[in-house]
Amino acid sequence: MVERIEEIEAEAKAAIDAAGSASDLEEARVRYLGRKAELTGILRGIADLPPDQRGPVGSTGNKVRKALESLIESKVDGLKNAELEKSLAEDRIDVTLPGSPARAVGHIHPITRTRRMIEDVMIGLGYQVMEGPEVEHDYYNFTALNHPEGHPARMLQDTFYVEDDEHVEEVLLRTHTSPMQVRAMEVNRPPLFMIVPGKTYRRDSDATHSPMFHQVEGLAVGEGITLADLKGTLLAMLREIFGPDRQIRMRPHFFPFTEPSVEFDVSCFRCGGSGALEDGSRCGLCKGIGWIELGGAGMVDPNVFGFVAEAGYDPDSVTGFAFGFGIERIAMLRHGVGDLRLFFDNDVRMLEQFS
User: Which of 110, 123, 142, 181 is the most buried (most CB within 10 A)?
Assistant: First the structure.
C-alpha cells in the first residue's frame, strides 16, 4: 500500500507541474486530493488494514497529502501572478484615448452665445462692455435709480435680500444690471456709451421666468441725445439680431429711472409682422399681433443725473437714454425654445441642438 501511495505522489506531482492554468490545477487537486480521490480513500480505510500496516500507511499518506497541498498552494500563487501579468500585457487600456464612440468636446451654451452676439453688435455701434457686482447695495439698485421708499420692487416678495448685521435690508442680489448706470457715471465723465450684460435675481419661477436670469442694460449719455437716437439704436441692434427687415415700435410705459419711458417691440420675424402665416393660420410666435415684446427703455430721468451731477452729469447740459432686456428672451425667440427652464436643466439632448 505504501508503494501505491508513492506512485500516487509521483502522478500527482507530474499533473501539478503540467498544469498551465488555475483551472487545470484545480482539476488536479480534485483528482488527487478530493473527497473521491484514491489517496483520500486509502487514508479513510486505514482502520481496516492489518495493525502492522496502519502506521506506515498512515504516516506516508499524510506526508504525501501535506506535500501535495503545499505544492498546489505554491503553484496557485505562481499561476495567478503569471495570469495577471498576461492580462496586464494583453488587456492594457490607454486611458488617454477617447471613449468609444468619442464624445463631442462641447460647445458654448446658447445663453452665452446669445450674450456674445449682443455684445458684438453693440461694440460695433460704439458701445463698451462693462460688468458690475451681483451682490449690490440698495443705494445703487434702487435709491440712485429713483425708486422711492415703499416701491413694490423693494419688497421681500420681489427681491432677495442678503442678511447683514450692519446693513439691515441694504444688501441684496441685484434685480437688474441697471445699478451699473450710476456706478459707471461716477467714474466716467460724459459722453458715455456702454452696455452691461450679466446675471440678475428676482423671486420669479415659471416657464418664462427664472429666479436667476441674464439681462443686458444699455446706457448712452451726451449732449443733445434724444428719443429718436434711442429708437435708431434699438432698430440697428434688433436688425442685426433678427434680420434686416425688422421694424420696431415703442409704447408708452413707466419706469422709475426713465422719463419718458417706453416698452419696445420688434416686428415678428416668423410672419413678417402680418400676424398670419403663409397658410393663413394665426402666427403662434406673436399670437397674431405681428409684434413681439422685448424690453423697456426711455430717456434717463433727470433725478438719476442728480446723483452723479458732481461727476459732470448736469441734467441741464446732458441727456441720455437707457434700455434693458433679457438675454434668455432673445435666445428663446431666436431658437424657438418655449420653456425658459430648459436652458438651465443641463439636458444634453436639448443643448446638443446648439452645437
Answer: 181
Tell me how far CA of residue 209 lies from CA of 33, 166, 201, 335, in angstroms: 77, 32, 10, 17
User: pTM for the full model?
Assistant: 0.68
Contacts of the segment 119-125: beta carbons below 8 A, 24+ positions apart: 119/195, 119/197, 121/237, 121/240, 121/241, 122/195, 122/218, 122/237, 124/240, 125/233, 125/236, 125/237
In this prediction, residue 102 carries a pLDDT of: 65
Higher pLDDT, 201 or 57: 201
Q: What are phi and psi of 8, to 5 degrees?
A: -60, -40
Lookup result for grid cell 458684438: 120
Amino acid code (one letter) for 320 = G
Answer yes or no: are the C-beta atoms of 296 and 263 closer than 8 Å.
yes
Packing angle, helices 51-90 and 22-33, rounded to 10 = 170
Among 187, 179, 188, smallest CA distance to 135 is for 179
Q: What is the pLDDT of residues 183-240, one digit of tens each?
A: 999 999 999 999 999 999 988 777 667 889 999 999 999 999 999 999 999 999 999 9
DSSP SS3 for 160? coil
Name which of 285, 292, 243 is nearest 265 in CA terms: 292
Which residue's C-alpha cell is 487545470? 24
